[in-house]
Amino acid sequence: RIFAKYLLKFLGYIACCSAVALVFGGVSVSLMYRNYTYLFQKSFLSLPVWLTIGAGIILLPTGFLAISISAKSSCYKQGVLMYLLLVLLCLAVSSAVLAQCYSLQTPSELKSTMGDLIYQYNGTLSKDSGVRLVDMIQRRLECCGVQNYTDWLKTTALSWHLLTENTRVPESCCKERYSDCMGDLSHLDQIFQEGCLKKLEDWFQFLMYYVFWYCVVLSVLGVLTIVINGLLMRQRPFHAIQFL
């Protein structure tokens, strides 16, 4: 019984510390979804985001309750802890499953959407949200095109770059240190040559795996905490916990 209380206290501290990291993961995915919403039009990426954030929020009081029970047992606190752990377990497992599913399905969607955006690109002066998104991605990730800069040579027949004397890429492909860069392909040293797709996929996969493995570990710790709390509840007579 004493060992179980100490272990429960230890798991309570881990839960309190983990709550911040779990919410951080959910918020990071949420920010990516908000910044690149246009690329995730067919996804319900916000679902695992809110499940993860919800799990993190519930994890904090669960940790404090576990620490409180380890100091002074209470059948009411033990009952509430058991319910919170079950809810937390459901949220964590759901988040892990959804994160794994999106990590497998979304890359193909990203490739298709980005390809369409670049194919239909009609110039930096356009007010189209797709154009602004392409420019924003290329500047922020320091990349050019989907696979590489040559993707800009495959755009539509009425493409903006065919109206000029020299074939070029958008100015958002230019490196910041070259203030006179116009995206001219005759000066490849002035533009980013690596594609944006791989950088986007790597960042997205990192966030999804972060959420997945964190939720898996959290689920294992949750089951262990349920077992320990159940062992402590066995020490009480049945009538003391019949309210459950």
From TrEMBL:
Coiled-coil region(s): none
Keyword set includes Cytoplasm: no
Example of a GO cellular component annotation carried by this entry: plasma membrane
Membrane topology note: Multi-pass membrane protein
Recorded superkingdom: Eukaryota
Record's keyword terms, sorted: Membrane, Transmembrane, Transmembrane helix
Family named by the database record: Belongs to the tetraspanin (TM4SF) family.
Protein name: Tetraspanin
Taxonomic path: Eukaryota, Metazoa, Chordata, Craniata, Vertebrata
Gene name in the database record: Tspan3_0
